[in-house]
Amino acid sequence: MNKINLIISREYLTRVKKKSFIVMTILGPILFAAMMVVPAWLASMEDTNIKNIAVIDGSGIFINKIPDTDYIKFEYVQNQNLKKIKANFSELNYYAVLQVLPSITYEPSAVHLYSEKQPSFSVKSHISNAMEKELKNKKLRAHGIDDEVLRSIKSDVSIRTIQWTEDGEAKESSTEVAIIVGYASGFLIYFFIFLFGAQVMRGVLEEKTSRIVEIIVSSVRPFQLMMGKIIGIALVGLTQFLLWTILTFALITGAKTIFFPELGTQNAQEVVVQDIMEKEIMPQSEQIPTQDLDKVASIFNSIKTIDFGVMFGSFIFFFLGGFLLYGSLFAAVGSAVDNETDTQQFMLPITIPLILGIFVMMNAVQSPDSPVAFWFSIIPFTSPIVMMVRIPFGVPYWELALSMSLLVITFIGTTWLAGKIYRTGILMYGKKVNYAELWKWIRYKS
Amino acid sequence: MALLQVKNIEKKFINHIALDDVNVNIPDNSIYGLLGPNGAGKTTLIRIINRITAPDKGEILLKGRPLQPEDVNIIGYLPEERGLYRKMKVGEQALYLARLKGLSKRDALKKLKYWFDKFEIQAWWEKKVEELSKGMAQKVQFITTILHEPELLIFDEPFSGFDPINAKMLKEEILELKKKGATIIFSTHNMESVEELCDHITLINNSKNLLEGHIDDIRKEYKSNIYEISFNGETEKFEKSLNPNYEIIDKKKVNGNNAVRVKLNHQTNDNELLSLIIPAVEIISFKEQIPSMNDIFIKVVNEHKN
């Protein structure tokens, strides 16, 4: 037992001390955090240049009706014609000229926006939104609906989903967040199995081609060497995952306080239904200015509603289970060949279930309780990936238990099988190996 | 007393028999030569002794009892195809291999210091193996093989990858280890080194061991009764002095002297031969031709081909 510990610690330490490991550990979270923070940050950024837009309204409907924003100002120039403005465009210092033709009421394309540069999307959508609203109101008024009614029917819908948990608690949840968390963890497992599985294979191949393997197996049993390597590398993977989680959370928290300082003061953490109820009775006028912020806060809230204890625990379990299952197969492949190019022919049976897992995962994210998602989250070869996607949506405990125990039984089986191939393969040189040959190795008596 | 007994070992692979009823007795504190052509089954036997592979039949006794898994700690093995982790530092690696053989970290460090000092390679401790030359790596490899002071050392073709300087060093160290009480198994087809080092041998061919015993006994057994005589004088006179009990195999001139090889039949002996030729010619040298291990090797292997 002492010897296998020595092997595990060598496999672990040589990899953790590598420069590439340290670089990956630092770069990973920065990338993750950037992926989550940058879009939010970009969205919060606005063009702060004041843009003056001249409006020539041939219809007369929109005069003084398009609201100014902080950075977009409208100037209504009825008595000027387009040609004249165009000639003096640079002196007039306009950002754009909006020309509305009289035919606007029945011809939607009767609006032109002239500018030197391509006008920004926010400007365009602000104008079209305002105009659509104005046109609609005008038509409604024409049908005898007065302004009072118009104001009162203004409505806004934003669905907040609340889950009733088994112990009767109600939690605010978010389908989007569940999708993101499920996706991320399923993908991470796929990625880790491939990345670190390939490391197992290369490690075995390295020992074989450098011919040190015969020296090692004269001190320890081949199975100990194989398991030591797989466990050592699994620990490297776990270390990387833990460091990534810690660093990513630290970075996101840091970014949150820098870019969205308001969130911290709002005490958005309370997510019980009472809080939501209270908000609903709150006077409407108070809620409007904080609406955008509310959305962000609600996302942060529902991230918190996902049971990270269960998520974390099952991630560790399914990562280790999946890794032991595939790692031993990778080790067997590494032992059977003489160089990395020969690994291709044996990689297919390993890659196919993993890729299948990814495809099913994409489907499971849409309908986590479909039969396909269910079966593939029970079958051990795909369960580590698919089950991780289903967990954020809530999975019955018996399914989880079934999936986990099948995974354990299967990895014991594959390591046993791989051990037999490995034992023969590591001492076999210069032989073109095929599946029939591998089958003979499996049937060898030790 | 035999340190290691190999009894009726049999090992089959898919398409051929590697070892067929092989019996070997390796005396304590001997240097034991395991001879045989390529593919004879030597490496398979060595792997079985090292518990890397298991035999299909038969047993291995160490000091009279069956070989146990822990016994690998008292065996030191230098395989024919050998290597080290290229990216690992020399010191770290030597320490790792020593600890895999059951040494404590403290003992291993102490012993490593002794050997690194002895070979004057302390400066390599922090170097990666890939930075070393082949000869340097061989020294490190040798140290890791013997560091745990094994009672049984197994060298498979030890001289094959070694340059002459390291080969000489290796020979000296092997003799030194024997002096300290170790038993050494030594697989090779380099017959010179067998004559130089081994005191017992076995010859394995086609998965069977064909002969076994002390090297002097084997040589006596394969003695051919040929004498080589060089002399001053006429060859005709020399020939006339012999009777039909003697047969001249060849005649040649060496450094201006005549050299003749004579085969004796069983009715006579070397003293009689001398008394016949002394009156005829002036003898410069007279010696019995003892077969080299190389001759015996070729002879035995060829005999068994048919």
First-residue to last-residue Cα separation of chain A: 20 Å
Order of helices and strands of chain B: EEEHEEEHHHEHEHEEHEHEEHEH
Estimate what percentage of residues of chain B fall within beta strands. 25-35%
- Name the helicity range of chain B: 25-40%
Largest sheet of chain A: 4 strands, mixed
Share in helix of chain A: 55-70%
Write down the oligomeric state.
Answer: heterodimer
From the spread of the alpha carbons, the general shape of chain B counts as elongated
Number of strands of chain B: 14
Estimated structural class of chain B: alpha/beta
Which architecture of the largest domain in chain B would the CATH scheme give at its second level?
Answer: 3-Layer(aba) Sandwich
Query: What is the name of the CATH class of the largest domain in chain B?
Result: Alpha Beta
Write down the secondary-structure element order of chain A.
Answer: HHEEHHEEHHEEHHHHHHHHHHHHH
Low-confidence stretches of chain B: none
Tell me the strand order in the biggest sheet of chain B.
Answer: 6-7-8-3-9-10
Give the domain tally of chain B. Answer: 2
Total number of β-strand segments of chain A?
A: 6
Question: What is the CA-CA span between the terminal residues of chain B?
Answer: 35 Å
Chain-averaged pLDDT of chain A: 81
If strands are numbered along the chain, what order do they take across the biggest sheet of chain A? 2-1-3-4
Q: Total helix count of chain B?
A: 10
